[in-house]
UniProtKB/TrEMBL annotation:
<dbReference type="InterPro" id="IPR013987">
    <property type="entry name" value="YjdM_N"/>
</dbReference>
<dbReference type="Pfam" id="PF03831">
    <property type="entry name" value="YjdM"/>
</dbReference>
<feature type="domain" description="Protein YjdM N-terminal">
    <location>
        <begin position="3"/>
        <end position="32"/>
    </location>
</feature>
<feature type="domain" description="Protein YjdM C-terminal">
    <location>
        <begin position="45"/>
        <end position="112"/>
    </location>
</feature>
<protein>
    <submittedName>
        <fullName>Zinc ribbon domain-containing protein YjdM</fullName>
    </submittedName>
</protein>
<dbReference type="Pfam" id="PF08274">
    <property type="entry name" value="Zn_Ribbon_YjdM"/>
</dbReference>
<dbReference type="InterPro" id="IPR013988">
    <property type="entry name" value="YjdM_C"/>
</dbReference>
<comment type="similarity">
    <text>Belongs to the YjdM family.</text>
</comment>
<dbReference type="InterPro" id="IPR004624">
    <property type="entry name" value="YjdM"/>
</dbReference>
């Protein structure tokens, strides 16, 4: 029996193989069995001006953003501290004072 690697996200030892993919049952992370995880997980997020964003950066909103499902609006100039980058359509996870947890698109922010 071959030894499968631990999950690169949660370090779980209970990974299993499904075709070409390795899957973690604890965090549901999937990755390719043949590729190097460090190169596939590195993604680049740039702000509206083309500056590189990193986890923990402070950003400023450059456009009024309506909050879906409520009457709240994130105003231009709102500073957001300690962002977290994620690999999805809305690639910034953050917490905005007075509003709460939000997901933002990088095209509507600039690095502060």
């Amino acid at each position: 029996m071959s030894e499968l690697p631990n999950c690169p996200q949660c370090s779980s030892a209970y990974t299993y193989q499904d075709g070409e993919l390795l899957i973690c049952p604890e965090c549901a992370h999937e990755w390719s069995a043949t590729s190097d995880e460090s190169t596939s997980s590195d993604f680049i997020v740039k702000d509206a001006n083309g500056n590189l964003l990193q986890d923990g950066d402070t950003i400023t909103v450059i456009k009024d953003l309506k909050v879906k499902g409520s009457s709240l609006v994130v105003k231009v100039g709102t500073k957001v501290k300690n962002i977290r980058l994620v690999d999805s359509d809305h690639n910034i996870d953050c917490k905005i004072d007075g509003i709460g947890a939000m997901k933002l698109k990088s095209e509507f922010v600039k690095k502060a």
